[in-house]
Amino acid sequence: MRKQNGNNPLQDRGRSVAEIRLQDVFQQVYLGLFIFARCPDGPRPSTVRPCQLPCKKDCIMTPFSNWTACPVICDPAGNAVKSKQSRKRLIIQLPSNGGQDCPEVLEEERDCEIPKICPGFRWKTHKWRKCQLVPWFLRKEHPGAQETCGPGLQTRAVSCRQLDGTQADVSECLKFGKAMPAITQRCQLPCQDDCQLNNWSKFSSCTADCVGVRTRKRALIGRSKKKDKCKNTQMYPLSETQYCPCDKYNAQPVGNWSDCILPEGGRVESILGMKVQGDIKECGQGYRYQAMVCYDQDNRLVETLRCNSHGYIEEACIIPCPSDCKLSEWSNWSRCSKSCGSGVKVRSKWLREKPYNGGRPCPKLDHINQVYEVVPCQSDCNQYVWVAEPWSVWKVSNVDLKENCGEGVQTRKVRCMLNTIDGPSESVEDYLCDPEEMPLGARESRLPCPEDCVLNDWGPWSRCSLLGLGSSSPLPPLTTLPAKPILLGLVIFQKTSERHSLEQLDHPCTRTNNRVRTAYTLRSPTVGRQCPDTTDREPCSLNLNCFNYFYNITDWSTCQLSPNAVCGSGIKTRMLDCVRSDGKSVDIKFCEELNLEKRWQMNISCVVECPVNCQLSEWSAWSDCSQTCGLEGKMWRQRSVVQASQGDGRPCPSQMEQWKPCPVRPCYRWKYSPWSECRVESVVCGHGIRYRNLSCFVSDGSGNGESSLVDEELCSSLELAIDGDKQINLKEACTLPCPVYFIRFEQEISLLI
């Protein structure tokens, strides 16, 4: 079949394409699977379908952005702080189907270059506006006031600039600059008798930017032309000159800040409102200064006026005021430390505020920050007395019922009372009375029976002999004597002196001596009974019922001044105290009855040093600048101590000298230029002459050798000398070496064969 149909193109042409393709399929399937003609009739499966072959997609990135601006950050000391700048890029398309991946780095950072000087900010002041008179209703009350002239006010604008002159926001100057300059000032509209001048003319034009000076003028007008006072050009200048303005100059601070300097001539008043010689103002608001340096567009040092600067940055500063030691007022005097004899009373002040910043120091304080004043006092030993009420009715505990008598108890109330001329007046605390002398508040006794002898209460004990310690008087035991000397009567005794002789003295308080008390018979006993003994004796025992007496001297008081005085002459006092041999202070009468001799001085004069504040001289005039030019010049001023502090006076401050920077001035000097090449005439080598020029150079005087060439006019005021050598040499002989020629001979050698 294939052979018949396949070889006849005419027959093939009559068949459809589908038939031909079907025949091809049949032929392929027939080879190994099945014969197509045997498939059932019906829908034939599709042998072709569309599909999508995915494409690769690479990562797509934007280019890096520009580097961010470097922030300029300054620390409080004015030094630049290291910072960074960065740049970024973004992913536009992520990779897919095996495309190229995105890089990991999307942001880069790098260190910024640290500026040599932090940018500062300064206030720029503009011209004062026309003077405006103060309203007439405010001025008319003043003598001599005129309606069309007199005091007024004028205003001006201020703006903020960086130190290089560029405009800045006002907030920068308020935050980082010094105090804003005044925007108003007093002015005077001249009256007929005042010197009158016309307004300033405009400044003359400058020939070129940043070159030369410009001037402006004004003139006297009217009658002022004939007045001598108006012809004083210092008070009324008629011309003004300044450097031509230039935006190409750059101002920068240089060097350290000066000391904080107070306005000159300032004084403070003393507490009493009177000015005290030498009491110089030492604190408050002052100013410190930092030099300004001005560079031109070629980074050459020029006069600071080119940068419209007076040569300094000025900054307000504070010198803290000294604060003196502050104490409270004196407290009330305490009660005398002893209720009998000599004691002390005390008053005190306590610390309220410590001194600081060189204030007046405190007096010597104790561990709880108090200062005391102690004076001796004498207390009357009889000012407080024990007062006993009558005994109560007997309370019989063991009663003879038949006779209604026997053992019993009586009580009474005992109180300590203040003793006055009129007798005891009021009750006080018991501790003010001597506890050893306190009467009994209760007693046991026997209520007498009718047949008993009745006696009254015992009378007081008789006194043992009163003896004072003198040259022939007995002494208390040596163990009761203090280690330091005590003045006793006529003799000064110490613990170990005359030990044997003292022990041999006759002593009255021995058991061989007695004291006595008696009672009286109130009712005689019945027959067969006797009254008890009406006399009672007991031996005189030292420091029990028998005592010796001697004087004791108190310590000196502090120096006592008159009531309103705080220093000067005063008196120290001390007191005599009568002391019993057991160490108890008793009424002075016990010693006075013995007629003991008093040899002690009771008062001496003393002096309390008056506080004197340190007084200083006025500041001297500022010294000449330490350098005539350059960056490091300084001026100094000194003062000295006129009166050193005394007592608790305010001490002298430590700062006896101050400095501030000098205005920076360029250092100009003559220098040789390099030698020219050696020049010879008419020949090409041999002896010749070389030349050099004399040029003007400027430097900052720091000695690092860097200098810049400037116009010779700037050195015109200098002596023509090089490093002090006035002999100028601008040419010298030289030798130009002749050239050396080499002759090369070549020889051809022919080889004959």
UniProtKB/TrEMBL annotation:
Spondin-like TSP1 domain span: 325-366, 614-667
Entries under SMART domains matching the protein: TSP1
Entry-linked Pfam families: TSP1_ADAMTS, TSP1_spondin, TSP_1
Keywords on record: Disulfide bond, Glycoprotein, Signal
GO CC field: plasma membrane
GO biological process per UniProt: actin cytoskeleton organization
Alphabetized PANTHER family for the sequence: SPONDIN (PTHR11311), THROMBOSPONDIN TYPE-1 DOMAIN-CONTAINING PROTEIN 7A ISOFORM X1 (PTHR11311:SF29)
Name of the protein: Spondin-like TSP1 domain-containing protein
Species per Swiss-Prot/TrEMBL record: Etheostoma spectabile (orangethroat darter)
Upper taxonomic lineage: Eukaryota, Metazoa, Chordata, Craniata, Vertebrata
